[in-house]
């Protein structure tokens, strides 16, 4: 039961959507089920819900030689079935940590960026590790923002009110290796916690430009920069503020160390 | 907003609010109630439908977003009256128990088979991660999906054991199942009456507080509100809940009850003080459910919070907050079972003594179906009718009429619609139930109340929650000489109707389990705290006792350096010792305890355990094997014995049988099925006895207006072994009357009248002197020529009150692995060897075992009701915070069974419904402790989560959350 009353609009064009999204009290709905949970709990209390479902092209997956573009309404089920995923195996690994068919059918790329939470952690972590960019529509045209940059925004959402997400662009680069390492846990309804590790192999065979992004411990994945063999207590504690409170922090730190060590051994750093 | 979509091939136009959920559109405007509301947060999957072919939890999607979509609900799955292959296969494989989760599971599986025509077991389990089942244990569902997949591509499925008809020992296909598969069965939330109003009930958010004032003025002005009730309105009209279990000759402290006959419990509304977060304060009755809840949010209560006490030992200590004036130091009962002095002496004389504190955690029944009530009062006839999902309809009729509302018993009728699992929580009388009935009378319109998931977490009884200080003593070569358990049972803020049953007899007389222990003692303090009241839960009492015993014996074996299996063998009750008095009040009927232990060990490959451990170690895992042997009292009565325990009720079984002039047989049972398939098993008993096809017989229950004196209902694994013999006896009475009548008509001595194949036969002239049961029934209905003293008609009433309980037994074995880095626990194998005496329907009984095992896995690994220590509010208010086992947690369960008849009833049956739950949690915990033994771990309290293992292994590190 949703207690909040709001108005609902499903504009036919991006322009219309932009004008609605610019108003106070709006919330964008990309068909993601997380927002419905937030509405029921009163976490989200919009005055207007702006659904993007009628805007053409928002659910498209377009693969080119250099990148893959995922519309904001692309679901994880769409993603898992699309041939483009063959070029981004880490994304397939991330999606595969979600088993509930409803969550695959009703979790979207837009939901990952607008709502986040435990279901979207692995996909967001992989997108960040792959240097993917969010494509935002503005009155002045399109704007691209690196997802790693958005991850700095904290716990309430990667996109601020008034931002309209068109989709995400994932660069395809032969030199980049990326994988998602899920944690062993009793299979639950949510995605599995884990770590996305991305790196570029140098001519000498060394790992370079390493990205380590940990998913499932914070509302949005946490990126660890400059990790070269170990992670400091300080680095771990710096992200503590937003960590889940139901599990002892010490144990969460322990698991993250395990994940980072596994990630580093994957890329040949120990 | 105007909305147009296609549902099951037909257009559905509706005017909805933007906040309306798809589930509400389908159920309320589409009338498609096969889609069930379970958790409300997208966790349980009971609301799954297909939207454009995609599995969709309809509680997690806005109706407006489905504009233009093609929606298929369970009602749309069968075509032209032909069940979908999934529906057929669920039926064939006994995958339907109470059926509440069945429609959603089938809909999710429909998408799987559409995408993947030949799924593996792993594929099915993965796809089922979004669908919970709280009673089936998943195994039969998985088998059903595999079969359906094969059928859909024209292949033969996995062979089903189901037969269409049969007697005792046959896996007969379950009756009354079709409407559960098609979504046509009406559960309480699916019901409505003309002119019906909706109620919402306000619960306290404080565990302990003084109520300084309640302001309902703003709420009263909300749209659709008809009336708001508080304690001011009900105080003079509704008496407090009664307590009907008062242990004799023991000091006990309950609350007063104006009847003066029984002690009391809480009132429908708190008036001056709330004592747990969930205590009721007010009810709003409105035209729609949404309006009732919208208005409820506007009621303002002025609370003065008081300190809360949530721990039973703290509650007994000096200076603790006091809950009730009538219960000094928060003590409800203190008592001792066994000879404490002798036990203390035996402990002090023993070569080896092991002590351990064990906390059997607080559990939530968390049935997927919440509780609900629909009530009506006919002012013209003064007839009260109550529909509710209770497992005790006759006790509801008696207790509400006599002790709560003071209305005539003969003016009250209780009907149980289709009902989801109970796990024990629907065996209590809750204050909301008489409240709704009373409000319906006051308002002169039917009133319906269906709880929310969060409401359920606070107002529906919880269970277990016992602290145990254990001492086990014995010899160095493994003979146990004494066992002592000093326990503190936390029963929450108020007593439920049978509050003392679980912490006293069910645990206290059961703690020696399968062993002959010369000196046992159980001492218990039953304590009030500011937690939700507790009631029995599947495995009730026996689960706490067996967990205690099986952990203590493992610790003892470890201390003396002996094989825990061998120590069990040394101490088990031997076959020649039956009937065996266990020293605490139970007399075990029959058993082959050691034999079943050895069967389980052999199946598990126990001899290879060191090699298994070594292999796992190489993969970075600690492997452990744990044993859970058990004996569990079942089959409640005998009535006299139960009176001795303090139950103020009979516990006999009852049945009424009626053979119509057409030959059709109708049997009313005193049992109250809620997923155990008595509609099938009782018919098997009757069909075998009467030697007629099952389809000639109908079983009636779930309505107090059925022709039966009283039904003692279903709980504690009693139905088959207590109510079943009453059915058998009623059939025998019919046969006896038919033979007597035939003897008169055939002019033969009764000794020459045989009853065979549904006929009475005069054996000297079998071709001439023969009448079918139908002919006998018709002739007795005519009653033109009856022998002296014989009444017309062919009917009988029968009762069965067993002389003793019965004692099913067995051994379960769990093999687990613990990851050495993440401490994740995974269950690799689970072997269960059970003996339920004579089994009527093996597949039905297997279904009960699977369900018991899944519940035990939950207790061992994940489930615990958690509370805010400051406010006393239940934190685990949904299925995200309270993790129920999902299909992927379970390995393929390996079930084995033997049959040792019980002497306690003529069927030779023993209980099966909940008795195989108690060995599960100890088997798993013993396995984990075995896996971690070399790390120095002796005991970890449940639920054993990775963080608990981390805490134990890294005790020096900070553990603050």
TrEMBL record, chain A:
Lineage summary: Bacteria, Pseudomonadati, Bacteroidota, Cytophagia, Cytophagales
Keyword entries, A-Z: FAD, Flavoprotein, Oxidoreductase
Gene3D superfamilies xrefs: 3.30.465.10, Uridine Diphospho-n-acetylenolpyruvylglucosamine Reductase, domain 2
Domain (FAD-binding PCMH-type) ranges: 1-175
Source organism per UniProt: Nibrella saemangeumensis
Protein name (record): FAD-binding PCMH-type domain-containing protein
InterPro entries: Diverse_Substr_Oxidored, FAD-bd_PCMH, FAD-bd_PCMH-like_sf, FAD-bd_PCMH_sub1, FAD-bd_PCMH_sub2, Mopterin_DH_FAD-bd
Matches recorded under PROSITE patterns: FAD_PCMH
UniProtKB/TrEMBL annotation, chain B:
Assigned keywords, A-Z: Iron, Metal-binding, Molybdenum, Oxidoreductase
Cross-referenced InterPro entries: 2Fe-2S-bd, 2Fe-2S-bd_dom_sf, 2Fe-2S_ferredoxin-like_sf, 2Fe-2S_ferredoxin-type, 2Fe2S_fd_BS, Ald_Oxase/Xan_DH_a/b, Ald_Oxase/Xan_DH_a/b_sf, Ald_Oxase/xanthine_DH-like
Signal sequence bounds: none
Domain of life: Bacteria
Record Pfam families: Ald_Xan_dh_C, Fer2, Fer2_2, MoCoBD_1, MoCoBD_2
Residues of the 2Fe-2S ferredoxin-type domain: 1-77
Family to which the UniProt record says this protein belongs: Belongs to the xanthine dehydrogenase family.
PANTHER family, per database record: ALDEHYDE OXIDASE 1-RELATED (PTHR11908:SF132), XANTHINE DEHYDROGENASE (PTHR11908)
Protein name as it appears in the record: Molybdopterin-dependent oxidoreductase
Organism from which the protein derives: Nibrella saemangeumensis
